[in-house]
Specification:
alpha/beta; Rossmann fold; 329 residues; two-stranded antiparallel ribbon; 3 domains; five-stranded parallel β-sheet
């Protein structure tokens, strides 16, 4: 996973490995921005598989997630058939012709496959099905999803039962805006992703933001860690950390200063109330503390070169159980 830019602890790597090996869905919960969706993207890249994403929202129904008929194409075919018959039709052929026409317009070529059906009918290789933010969908859709994940088959009245040619790798994510039902939880393996530690966040920033200075990466991580210890309405996730780091690199900054932090705070904090909590002297104090802690961190890790050495030592001790993950393709 590290080769694809995802810095993962052993618990994440092991959960993904087991979900694939045991052919069970993986439910990943955690705060927004901790990298839940990215897990599915990385797994698809490792397996060289198609990533099929179903974005959940309130009011999501079966038709939107499973299939719809291409009504425009069906109507066009009916008009073509009417024009063809306008030239005359032998007697007795009316009923038979109508039945054949019905079979034609309700064939597979008139079916619009939505994400769930696409994951079932994918013929070449097992796809990765990402069901993103399942907590935003209602309980009725959750019950329907449970049935689909049970057998990986669906019944379409006009076509019959369609079964999966290859069992997809299924990853569900949840921001815990509501509790997921027990039945769906029991169907899945479970993983909770916490906000990263300082060491991991430094490594993520260095891996995903090319050209960033070691000291700046450490200062950013210390500053964000301090924000998460506060009672903010929307604490920043890794996604916000990376946005902020890229903004600072774009501005050619090698270290934090209070003025730059104030000007770029909108990359990191996404709530008006939180912005108000971090004005003036408080922001300057946070910046000063982050710089002092980063200086201490880099000074304490001189052997391998400051912050770069700190994260390298952490990586050297990491034994990735997914080294042979792609062999499961």
């Amino acid at each position: 996973m590290r080769e694809h830019g995802y810095i993962a602890e052993r618990s994440i790597v092991t959960a993904v490995h087991l979900a694939r090996a045991m052919e069970k869905p993986l439910l990943i919960e955690g705060d927004a921005g901790v990298g839940k969706t990215e897990v599915a993207k990385v797994v698809a890249a490792i397996l060289d598989a198609e990533l099929i994403r179903l974005q959940c929202y309130e009011g999501l129904d079966v038709n939107t997630s499973l299939y719809e008929w291409n009504y425009q194409k069906q109507l066009l075919r009916l008009r073509i058939a009417a024009d063809e018959r306008g030239g005359g039709m032998p007697e007795g052929d009316g009923l038979a012709g109508a039945g054949e026409l019905e079979d034609l317009i309700f064939g597979r070529e008139y079916l619009l496959e939505r994400p769930l059906l696409r994951a079932i009918t994918c013929a070449d290789a097992p796809p990765v099905l990402l069901i993103d933010e399942i907590d935003r969908a209602d309980e009725g859709f959750e019950a329907f999803l449970l049935e689909v994940l049970s057998d990986f088959q669906v019944t379409i009245p006009e076509l019959g039962t369609i079964r999966a040619a290859h069992r997809p790798v299924v990853i569900l994510t949840s921001n815990r805006t509501r509790e997921i039902g027990d039945a769906l939880r029991r169907r899945c393996l479970y993983l909770y992703i916490e906000h990263p530690t300082f060491e991991k966040e430094v490594e993520i920033v260095r891996a995903r933001v090319p050209g960033i200075a070691d000291l700046l990466a450490a200062e950013i991580a210390h500053f964000v860690q301090a924000l998460r210890r506060r009672s903010l309405m929307k604490p920043p996730g890794v996604a916000e950390t990376l946005d902020w780091a890229r903004a600072l690199v774009t501005l050619h900054r090698d270290a934090l200063d209070a003025e730059t932090v104030a000007e770029t705070l909108g990359c990191l904090v996404k709530d008006r109330h939180d912005m108000g909590e971090l004005e003036g002297d408080d922001l300057q104090t946070l910046t000063g503390e982050a710089r002092a802690e980063a200086a201490d961190t880099t000074r304490d890790a001189p052997a391998l070169g400051g912050a770069r050495g700190l994260v390298q030592r952490m990586g050297d001790d990491f034994d990735d159980p997914l080294d042979d993950f792609a062999d499961y393709k």
